[in-house]
Amino acid sequence: MALTQDEKYELYFQASREVLVDFDGTLCEFAYPEFGRPRRGARAFMDWLMERGLRPIVWSSRLSSKYAPTLVERESVAFHIHRWLERHGIPYCGVDTGDLGKRLALAYVDDRGVAAGEGTTWAEARKRINEIHRREMARWKETRGEEV
What is the CA radius of gyration of the chain? Predict the structure, then answer.
């Protein structure tokens, strides 16, 4: 059944209030497969979103079909993320299970994010990708006991 124009508008309006916030490396220190400690300022950032009437939705690659291929696995991961957020007093409006693919939102906050919209040059995007690449390669070498 196709959505009416009013239903599409309502979905778009609701999405314009949601901010998707990544979990690993963004809200918590990267410690995969464990759950890291909250990053300094994470709770204040989520409070700031809520105070502005925005709806922070937590998302994570942990919930992708690659890492949690069954519904039962995704529900278990989502449960543990909910528990972690509550244990650390971090406000949120939901955890996106990723079942619907890329979700429409006002903004996406992610430790691997690269701005590429209006007001950002491609040179700035390349610089950010290089920064992320260096950090991730150092993290990889560190976990494997190699020199950085």
Answer: 17
